[in-house]
Amino acid sequence: MNVKEQQYVCELARCRNLTKAAQNLFISQPALSIYISNLENSLGVKLFERIGKSFILTYAGERYVETAKKMLDLNEGFEQELQEIVGEYKGCVRLGMQTRRSAYFLPPLIAAYEKEFEHITVDIRTGNYEYLCRQLKEHQLDLIICNRSDADMSAMKVYPIFEEMLLIAVPVCHPLNEKAVYVPGRRYRYLDIACLQGETLILQRPMQSIRRDVDRLLRERQVVPGRIRELESIETAMQFVAENLGVGFNREGYSYEMSYNKRVNYYGILNQNDTVTLMLAHRKNLALTKPICRMIDMLLERAGEYYQQN
């Protein structure tokens, strides 16, 4: 099925910029401009308003894109179903995962998957949760791993992978270590987050999910830091903590793979819901072909194996 027309309009609607859309579609800018103009002429209605260099959908354009996305979904499902009918599993599975997790989580999984489906290409894209969810919604990804709080339950089918703790990272020589308490049956000792009042905190950028979780906890306990150092890299932040430059936070899963010549002490957060559920997610209308179903199974298996090991 030829859905080039729908692909072109949807990509231009997404980018709102002719040059960027043409680059993504691997055609020239003049060719795309002519194609859109000819389409509008044949339909007898404008799909886009040209405002400077921006292409903004008209009402007719919005209705066109809404229908076009349904057509693209149907086409995607049909092509995958056709491949299964003829028994030739070819194509691409597009998987999105947070940058920090992908390095240790994905390589053995992809190696095993490509032995089983040698004609399937696995396209890995990494980024923060906001980027991954947007890419999934815009049909740029098939599967993503995200926090439950970032998943759109109305549009996504989700599979819980595991729960992990949000940990407080404290320099080994810091007085806060003396305030940590032992909780029977738990892996970590625990700190009351109220103990961080007035402390120097090493936090991530506001757009990062771990920062949103930390900010929520600080607000709930009305904790006001004395100073905040912002670092995008969690690994660098932990090295700052090790050098006694402040107190930080880390995901339990991240901590397993971080090493430094000076260690830090990790504590759970006392009397708080300090766990985060990670989910495997896809669009509810995604065609679940055999290669995609197998990828889902292997991701769930890999998560279970990894967290049992640690």
UniProtKB/TrEMBL annotation:
Residues 1-58 form the HTH lysR-type domain. InterPro entries: LysR_HTH_N, LysR_subst-bd, WH-like_DNA-bd_sf, WH_DNA-bd_sf. Pfam families: HTH_1, LysR_substrate. It comes from the Bacteria. It comes from Enterocloster alcoholdehydrogenati. This is LysR family transcriptional regulator. Keywords: DNA-binding, Transcription, Transcription regulation. The keyword Hydrolase does not apply. CDD domains: PBP2_LTTR_substrate. The keyword Transcription applies. Belongs to the LysR transcriptional regulatory family.
